[in-house]
Design the sequence.
């Protein structure tokens, strides 16, 4: 084994630093403690400052940390930053940057990116400008920090996550060449778009041209920054073999290292409080169901859940609903089922009629109006979940054994109805289903098994493929992770497989369920960051060696 080169300083830039949006937040926030222990206060996370003068619950300002540089950055370099600690395990240093002043230079910045790296910003729309101005500002922040605090002999890494941070990585590559750059794509923007637009991604992946598809799907600018960054940084990485196939075909660049996504078990309650938390979560969810539906479901009810981004097809929400509909007619179903869809939609306000019932100790025997949803939506008549429930003619009536409840908000503990954070509710599930069609990794099933909740996923998810490779075969319910084979065209078979798995689970005795929960937790243990951090050390080594080669070639 060669000796891996080790960085002295690491900067990581992401839209999701101190900004809880999606799976990348989980990647960064769960890994931070492991890196902070290995590089104490030599790892700096850079994120966008949306909160300005308001208090960000995920960030604590610390005026003393990096004080001299912060003042220099503001006075000499015109950079407005806040320095403090990210309120997560490990409490690493976070630098939040106000990027609003760079909009005035937007056209010049884009012109330079085209001249230097042929980044096409001409077709930009939507969130492209906002992400790019943040990205550029983050690059300027690292440039300023480097020249103020560091020396040429220091090994410095800059890791940029997703297309949103590509511009900053390329800025550093050109303007601070002593810094080694890593770019991580967690999902190719064009692959996600092909899948989300109903086109078959997998059978025809070999035939797609990324540039051509970007033009067809109006994705030129995002695809361009992603592709050019992948080609020019010192080390290009992605999160799974399945996404690496996309990178090879659509970005025309395979990853140098695959950074599998781990988890940290600090988030999981220890034995003493585990059962109490599980009991509370179940009581909360069943109380919600009974108050919304006017039922009297007891503790032996099977609680099933799905969650994640509201990508109706990509995340398999459609096939989950199809499976639940088929389950209503399954003669082998042994228990009442309450199936939750915890997916943030275009949410309005929490339902007053439901809140009133939730605060009452009374039992109700009539359902509320629209007994499927906990919060009103701005688009009640055009919501995909509600539309499909209507299309399937699902009723949530007292005489059906399968009830579906849509919780269309972020579970941050302040939603007005459940008022419990996501992990505090996750622990109450009996089984989860993540039947993804497009899922580069799949944190949601990994989180599920970390909380000892068996899960159903697919082999189109990086996590599902990893489980199969771990077991040397397809995962089954007995393993704690059931991995279903999914293709572009076998939607109906996937729905049947989910239905059969829930039905089978409903008939298991307590000992069998306990054994499956134990197996689920054992799989989660193998995905802890202490096992997966090694891939990051390999990426640092590749980046530092390529930086050295790049600098020597210039001499």
Sequence:
């Amino acid at each position: 084994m060669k000796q891996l080169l080790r960085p002295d300083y690491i900067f990581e830039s992401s839209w999701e630093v101190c900004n809880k949006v999606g799976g990348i937040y989980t990647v960064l926030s769960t890994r931070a403690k492991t890196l902070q222990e290995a590089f104490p206060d030599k790892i700096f996370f850079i994120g966008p400052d949306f909160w300005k003068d308001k208090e960000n619950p995920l960030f604590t300002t610390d005026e003393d940390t990096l004080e001299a540089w912060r003042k220099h950055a503001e006075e000499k370099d015109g950079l407005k930053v806040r320095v403090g600690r990210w309120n997560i395990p490990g409490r690493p240093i976070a630098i939040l940057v106000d990027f609003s002043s760079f909009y005035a230079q937007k056209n010049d910045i884009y012109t330079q990116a085209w001249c230097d790296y042929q980044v096409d910003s001409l077709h930009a729309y939507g969130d492209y400008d906002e992400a790019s101005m943040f990205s550029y500002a983050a690059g300027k922040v690292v440039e300023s920090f480097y020249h103020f605090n560091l020396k040429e002999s220091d090994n410095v890494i800059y890791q940029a996550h997703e297309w949103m941070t590509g511009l900053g990585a390329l800025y550093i590559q050109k303007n601070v060449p002593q810094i080694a750059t890593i770019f991580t794509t967690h999902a190719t923007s064009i692959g996600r778009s092909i899948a989300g637009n109903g086109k078959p991604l997998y059978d025809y992946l070999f035939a797609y041209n990324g540039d051509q598809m970007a033009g067809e799907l109006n994705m030129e600018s995002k695809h361009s920054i992603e592709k050019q960054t992948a080609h020019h940084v010192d080390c290009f990485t992605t999160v799974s073999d399945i996404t690496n196939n996309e990178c090879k075909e659509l970005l025309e660049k395979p990853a140098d290292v695959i950074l599998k996504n781990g988890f940290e078990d600090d988030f999981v309650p220890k034995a003493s409080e585990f059962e109490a938390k599980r009991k509370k979560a179940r009581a909360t969810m069943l109380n919600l169901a009974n108050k919304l539906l006017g039922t009297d479901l007891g503790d032996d009810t099977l609680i099933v859940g799905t969650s994640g981004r509201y990508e109706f097809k990509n995340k398999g929400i459609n096939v989950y609903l199809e499976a639940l509909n088929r389950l209503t007619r399954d003669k082998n179903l042994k228990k009442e089922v309450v199936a939750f869809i915890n997916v943030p939609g275009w949410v309005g306000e929490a339902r007053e009629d439901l809140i009133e019932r939730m605060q009452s100790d009374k039992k109700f025997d009539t359902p509320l109006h629209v007994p499927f949803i906990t919060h009103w939506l701005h688009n009640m008549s055009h919501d995909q979940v509600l539309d499909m429930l209507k299309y399937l003619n699902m009723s949530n009536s007292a005489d059906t054994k399968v009830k579906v409840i849509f919780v269309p908000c972020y579970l941050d503990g302040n939603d007005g109805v459940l008022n419990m954070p996501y992990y505090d509710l996750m622990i109450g599930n009996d089984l989860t289903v993540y039947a993804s069609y497009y899922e580069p990794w799949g944190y949601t099933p990994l989180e599920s098994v970390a909380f000892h909740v068996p899960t159903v996923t697919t082999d189109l998810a990086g996590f599902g493929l990893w489980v199969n490779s771990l077991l040397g075969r397809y995962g089954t319910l007995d393993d704690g992770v059931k991995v279903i084979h999914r293709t572009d065209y076998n939607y109906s078979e996937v729905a049947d497989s989910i239905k059969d798995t829930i039905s089978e689970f409903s008939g298991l005795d307590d000992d069998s369920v306990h054994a499956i929960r134990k197996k689920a937790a054992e799989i989660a243990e193998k995905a802890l960051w202490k096992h997966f951090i090694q891939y990051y050390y390999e990426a640092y080594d590749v980046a530092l060696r390529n930086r050295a080669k790049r600098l020597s070639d210039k001499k």
